[in-house]
Every structure is written in C-alpha cells, then in structure tokens.
C-alpha cells in the first residue's frame, strides 16, 4: 500500500539510516544495545477489551460547546444482538438530565429522546438554555423496554464563555491518530484526568479517530488488540461496527465523559489519502463506488460523535467556528471533502499550481470571511494536515539558496517538499490563506494532527512571525521508530530530526518517535505548548508525562 504518510515516515527513516552510516563504532554499539529486551522484537499476544454491562456499553460524550448549550451523546444497546452495525433492535426512549452537580440534586434541564436502529441507536441532545462558562453534569436513563430504569455513566461538560466576555486564558488538548491495533489508549486516560481536574477546557481532535485497514494492515509493533470487523471497512455496517469497538475503550470513554470535544475528520475516517473524487486506499473495482463508501463513512461519523454540524454527503458541511469571548476564534476546517487529488512526488508545478485547492471555493469564501471579521486576539485554525512547509531543503529562508526563489519569479517554489498530501501540495492556496491571516492582524495558532509525530513551527508572513503551529503526536498510530523497528529515541531517529531542523529554518521542535497528545494554553501575550508522551503504548497502564514544552510570543 502506497500511503503518503507512510511514504514520509519511511523517507525519514531511510534518510536517518543513511546518515547513520557515519556513526562511530561506539555509537553503533550503543544503538545495537538498545535493542536488548526491546518489546518490538517479538509479536504481542492480542488482548480483548471486556464489554461493560448492557445497555450503556459505549459511554457518554459531549461536544461543540457554545455559551448556552453543548451537544450531548450516548449509544444505548437494547439487546445483546443489537450491537453496533447490526441494524436491528427495538426503539428505546431515553430520559436525559443536565445538572450543576454530579449527584443531580440541582437539575436545570431535562427531556426525552428516542434511540432507533436507523441511527445505530445513537442519540444527540442539544440542551439550550444553559449558563455560559459553567460546568455541568449529564446522564441518560432508559424509560421503556427490558432495561427500564438503567442509568448511563455520568458525564461532565463545560459551556463556552459569553460572547462579550474577555477571558484571560484558554486551555485545550490537541489530539489525533488513534489506531486500535497500534497500542493502548492511555493518552486518553491522561486527558480525562486533566479534564476532570479543570486543567483543560475541551479536546480539539483533528482526525483519524479510527483506521479503516484490515486487521494487521497497519499495527506498528502490534497488533495489541484486533480490529472488528477484521476486514477493511467499506459499508455502513462496517464503519458503525468499528466506531462501536473504539467506544468500548475505557480510557476513550473517560476522556469523552470528562470534557467536551470539538472534532473534525481527516482521511482514515473514510480511506487513506481521500480527496473529492476518491482515495489512495479505495479501489472501485473491488470496493464499489467511492461516493457510496464516503457517504456511509460520513453517516457513521455523525452518528457516533458529539458534533453539531450537517452531513456533507447530504448537502451540508462540517467546517464550523467557535468563539471564546474576545480572546480566541476557533475555525475548524474540512481538508478532505473538497480537495483536489494530491500532487505527485517531485512534480513541483503541481505543488505550486494556483488553481489547485484543498478548501474548495465555498469553504474558502466562508473561511476568509470569518478571519477578516474576527475581533479576537487569536485566530486558532483547527487543521488536520500540516500547514507549515516540510522540505528536504528550504530555498527562500536559506541565504545560500534564496536567490533561486527570486530567479523562479512567479512560480514561487520555496523548497523541495516531502509530502504532497499536506498544505505543501496546495502551496498557492496556502499563500492566499496566509495573506488573509497576516492582513487581519490577530495572532495565529495552527493546531494540527495527521503525521503521527511532534512538531512546533513558527508561522512567517512577509518577513515577520505572526504565529505558531503545534502538531501533536499520535495516540497510537505508528511513527518512525516503528518503521525502522527500533525503540523510541534511538540514534537514527535523532539524526533524522537533526536533518529536518537543518532543512526547515521555521522548525522549533520535532520528535519522530513519541506517542501521545499536546496541550495548548493561550493568553493575550502568547501560547504555551506541551507535548504529553506515553511511556509505552504497549502497556495499558503506562504513565504519561511532559516530553517537551515551548512558548511562542
């Protein structure tokens, strides 16, 4: 399989290995000794995650916080046969309550909702009338059927601050790329603890909530546990089944129950390297019509996540915005549904073609209008693929090669890019977006997922820094050390990181091996980013700690 993300990781691994040929004998011996008792040297025995008790097997969740409401979600299982994707099961009426306390002594709003097989027995509730900037607790109770009286786990959520307020700070997690077979979701457990302790306002999840591959197709040093269904997911029942499996993870359930999530998809929610009319990992000859597959994937996504948006497969859109007083406006972009096919490797004319788009015309007009009319101190860009250039060599910012850019004139090739699936493959549109952001005048923060590795960039526009980009590591999806079959922080990966720093002057942090997520804390002066790392994704009880911290002012 020719995965672009894999191609980047393999390229980085190969480049690192070639550089490593110059290692001293002592350094090579040190690298070899690091393999002793390394868990990746043998295949693990996959484990099975035990199910909870019927009927609330999949927890509760909240998302898309506004000052007066937040989307609430659960899935009820009406019988042992009515599992996700089954398409069977009786309708179930649920009562829901929202309270100011976890004991529900002070209920502020209640209602009822019906779970049906048409929506895979998932429900969404939008309880308008809540107070802004307030912590609430919520639950669901079965009203009828054999499980009448059964109560869901209690969820905790937080509404956004008033639109006319002036918050001092905003704190949230940045997360992406959770592969069930690649490891255990201990990073989510850490998010849950921070959320319950009031250290995070929300989770910004930027794609690859799950992976579409067949079992064993992309498992790093795993599989540590096996996909359901075992085959590559294509149909609506397939996608529903795999979402249901993901929601049985106790750490993921805890993170959803601890604080609201703001989510958007990348490609693996449908198929690898998806674009407007297809995907790299979709074969019409054997997997049918792309439009039908994408519509099924989108339907399951909207059923299983607490998102307030309308389905693009039904004429709607998932790109949307959120306001946090006058401190920050968050715009969440859809970078898969409308994009042109990715540029071919080393076809620099395609990378810089002014007619190529990632956003599409309608989303681009909406996005530019939102940015231009914002009065906030910060513009936060919810961005599923890396915005900053990722070059083998950077021409424009390198004094030894900047004259090449001047010679090229209107073609404006600024470097030799490594990955056409990122914004590098749509560089003319990236420059137009940068002009909009630069002219608007707010500080800019891009929050990014996708690439499974940690990055921190400064954002330059017309010779000055206007912001930063924070790219989180993956929850579990494989990264460079797993491709070269070495432990984390091995000398070869470190060499690759150094080569990337030399080739990209805007780069301030990179780690090619770590798994975890990032946290961001905004104030009116700057942004603090921390990359939280899981000590070992093979260990379901692994610790999580700060691996790196960076502040941009």
Automatic annotation (TrEMBL):
Key word Signal present: yes
Domain of life: Bacteria
Pfam hit, one: PhoD_N
Protein name in UniProt: Phosphodiesterase
InterPro entries: Metallo-depent_PP-like (IPR029052), PhoD-like_MPP (IPR018946), PhoD-like_sf (IPR038607), PhoD_N (IPR032093), Phospholipid_Metab_Enz (IPR052900), TAT_signal (IPR006311)
UniProt domain PhoD-like phosphatase metallophosphatase: residue ranges: 172-531
Stored SUPFAM superfamilies: Metallo-dependent phosphatases
Domain Phospholipase D N-terminal: 58-159
Signal peptide: 1-29
Annotated organism of origin: Corynebacterium doosanense CAU 212 = DSM 45436
Keywords: Signal
